[in-house]
Amino acid sequence: MASLDAVRRESVGIIGAGAAGLVTAHTLLQDGFGNVQLLTRDKSVGGVWERQRIHPGMTLNSVYGESSFSSLPMPPPQNQKRLGGEDMCSYMEKFADTFLAGKIQFETEVLNIRHATGSGWEIQVQDLRTKVKQLLFYDRIVLCTGGFSEPSIPESLSPDAAVKASFHGLVCHSAEFARHLDQILEDHKAIPDYSVLVVGGGKSAQDVSTLLTRFGVKVTVVFEKTDAFLAYPIELPAILRKSRFLSIMASHIELRTRLERFLHTTWLGGKITRAFWDFLYWSSYKALNIPQNSPLRNSHSLFWGIRTNDEGTGKKDGFHTLCNEGKIKLAAPARAVKYMGDGESVLLSNGTEIKANAVILATGYTSSWTNIFAQETAKELGIGRHPPLADAEEHVWNYTSFSNPPTSHPRSEEWVSSIYRGIVPARNINRRDFAINGAFFTVNNGYAFEVMAHWVSSYFLGDEMRLPSSPEEATKLAGRNAAWMRRRFPEMLLWVNESYSSDLAFWSWPQAMDELLEDMGVPIMRSGGNWLTWPFKVIMPAEIKNLREERRAKREMDLEVVS
Prior knowledge:
about 575 residues, alpha/beta, five-stranded parallel sheet, 26 strands, globular
């Protein structure tokens, strides 16, 4: 491999200017990469928290409750107990202004990514202001487009389908809700008995319906299943929410400690673990006074799923309270099927027709990778999803805490992608010129994205790391991890798209980050504690603030050994 100085002179293109893209760029610059450029189609930074996407009432739904980087502390929330959309947006903008001035190319749509002749990458882009197309060349690429940038809209509910059915009202995805909010509120004032139908049961659907209800708009929400949630009579202390406690109770692909092995491989430990999660489920619904017959109880599993929000102690005008009071109507369990020919109704799967002046589709997102890679390039990289590998059945985790799992689809339907560590396509492992950040599903994106940014930088620099020796070994290890994801989170791979499911370490993100730190040869379990206190020590971004210096010291030692 080229010398360190030569590598640092090479160009790096980062696709996306959300949280993952920003911290990756900053880390590479700190490591001496001088030619780093971010590309984003947005007008400002932030990704899902970009200014044109946020709206009043948006909150960070992470159980951890924070998403910040070690180089810039997160200010306290402006107007509420929990961080909101404006808080996150302002933080991302400040981070970019502080560390990345002049490094971001805005309103630039990536049309195609492919290998350049010889080496490096060729990216076709279009300036969204001038419509001019051009080719950009980079020696290395980091894909940071995430999983929440390309709306997924059922064809039968699309704006085109609404036009064909002569539906008169507004139809938009929740990603576009902020730009339509003023028009919705104006129409609400002008049109008698104005109402909105929100399709979906996730956090976006809840935020949209809650905000509109606070403005006095009549809202009906239709869903088959809604998100699980954590709630409590009093706010949980940081030693429970921000420590390893929940991750230990959740299990991981590897059980490092005696406590984890007791909880997940012994009869008594398995009983304790499942009783704990059952209690959380029961107490959360009790804390928010959810009636036994409420459709809100038709939710995903706390233990088996990754669709979980943290509601804290709840709000007097929060989603669940408004539903309990009948101010938000629930048409559930049901699925929106099509627009009716009367121009004002939507047919549900249970035969009900709902009249609405506007329809907000909180129907999730599709992969942000699909449209930017030619099929040939995607196949060459191995970045797309494929059926489980032939040896997938060899991997078995007979954890006692895994008793009575939910029914899942056949494994043949649960396709996966072979992304080693959720960061590098297995087929490309030896090239060290392509990486991914932001496709790893966790409850603490700030910490996780920063650790992964350091991993990517070490990988690009050619540092001595714990890596597979070949693409074949990387593929096998990625296949093992995919088998774990199917075992641990039945059906979740059918819900999340591939650009946000390269790895699912939802509750067990601390263990997953330890694996990445160990790959780099730096200390793990950094929050400390003794044999009794370590599960409850708060994990903070500050503990990885000196990670660059640690990696540099290890690099220098490795070079001394070689010389």
